[in-house]
Design brief:
The chain has 327 residues and is of the alpha/beta class. The protein has a single domain, classed as TIM Barrel. It is 39% helix and 15% strand. It contains 13 helices and 11 strands. The strands form 3 sheets. Strands 3-4-5-8-9-10-11 form a 7-stranded parallel beta sheet, covered by helices on one side. A two-stranded antiparallel ribbon has the order 1-2. Strands 6-7 form a two-stranded antiparallel sheet. Helix 2 (31-43) packs across helix 3 (59-68). It is globular and about 50 Å long.
Length: 327
């Protein structure tokens, strides 16, 4: 596993999104199996692990903290603040950030958070105030680096002017390309900020294991309410999966591996964080770093996707309401 640099933070070229072990993509996995999976990722070279207080809530941070405790100083832990877990609304008031960070530190079994993201931009709190609080927490030693999640280019620039932003996290995959056009990737490149794609496999879409007959449990799986995962759109997007599978077969790879290799080929400061709860999928994902896509390969993928339509939007209305799209 090679390394990449997010701002001035050095991490493995693929990270591990830990959310799905505990929440949102089905019922929680067995805790012991989750710990085993995270430790296996570390043993295979992953040094960048992503969680958030709202995953569970709280249970994923606790799982990650226990799993990484034996080698805490050899890994980079990213977690997030910004939700009022009691109400489900946004809350990035300075006093709230100061109140919740100690809980995250305790659950993560650490005295500092390597990368502390604002999970969603709170329109009621100026981003300059948020950046100022993080600047103070960095001075106090509780935080090492500042991150933003689903922030617009203008918000990124305003925050960065107060406290340098190390990394921006947003959804980015072959199926979701908004950051290429809304100025976010351009702002990151100009300012020297790393970019961390969440959902790099289309929230589980791109491996090609879902079909029109797939039914996600609305009680445990957030995706069940996303338009893209409706039976109609699962069927309508078959052409995307068919192309990826055929292309991957020619490369001696899988659709998931090609999807991750494509992201890695976009910029050297992009570090995807695929998530899984299964060891065989972890091994499959990590093998993507050995797949070299040529200029001709990238051109073929670009041409194919230019002719394909992605059916269904990113998330549901409630989820999209808290995505920062300010200009």
């Amino acid at each position: 596993m090679q390394q990449r640099t997010l701002g001035n933070l050095v991490v493995s070229e693929l990270g591990a999104g830990c959310m799905s072990i505990s929440a949102n993509y089905g019922p929680p996995a067995d805790r012991a199996e989750g710990i085993k999976l995270i430790r296996s990722a570390y043993e295979k070279g992953v040094t960048f692990f992503d969680t958030a207080e709202i995953y569970g809530p709280y249970t994923n941070e606790d799982l990650v903290g226990e799993a990484l405790a034996p080698f805490r100083d050899q890994v980079v832990i990213a977690t997030k603040f910004g939700f009022d877990i009691g109400t489900g609304g946004l809350n990035s008031r300075p006093e709230h950030i100061r109140a919740v960070i100690d809980g995250s530190l305790k659950r993560l079994r650490t005295d500092h958070i390597d990368l502390y993201y604002q999970h969603r931009v709170d329109p009621s709190v100026p981003i300059e105030e948020v950046a100022g609080v993080i600047r103070d927490l960095i001075k106090e030693g509780k935080v090492a680096h500042f991150g933003l999640s689903e922030a617009s280019a203008s918000t990124i620039r305003r925050a960065h002017a107060v406290q340098p932003v190390t990394a921006v996290q947003s959804e980015y995959s072959l199926m979701e390309r908004a950051v290429e056009h809304n100025g976010v990737l351009a702002a990151c490149e100009q300012l020297g900020i790393g970019f961390v794609p969440w959902g790099p496999l289309g929230m589980g879409y791109l491996p090609g294991t879902l079909t029109a007959s797939t039914r996600l449990d609305p009680k445990t799986d957030l995706r069940s309410g996303f338009d893209r995962f409706s039976p109609e759109n699962l069927a309508a997007n078959t052409a995307i999966i068919d192309f990826l599978k055929a292309f991957a077969q020619r490369k001696g790879a899988t659709a998931a591996q090609v999807s991750l290799a494509w992201l890695l080929a976009q910029k050297p400061w992009i570090v995807p964080i695929p998530g899984t709860r299964r060891l065989n999928h972890l091994e499959e994902n990590l093998a993507s770093v050995s797949i070299q896509l040529t200029a001709a390969d990238l051109s073929e993928i670009h041409t194919a996707f230019s002719a394909l339509t992605v059916h269904g939007g990113r998330m549901n209305q409630m989820q999209m309401r808290v995505v920062d799209e300010t200009q």
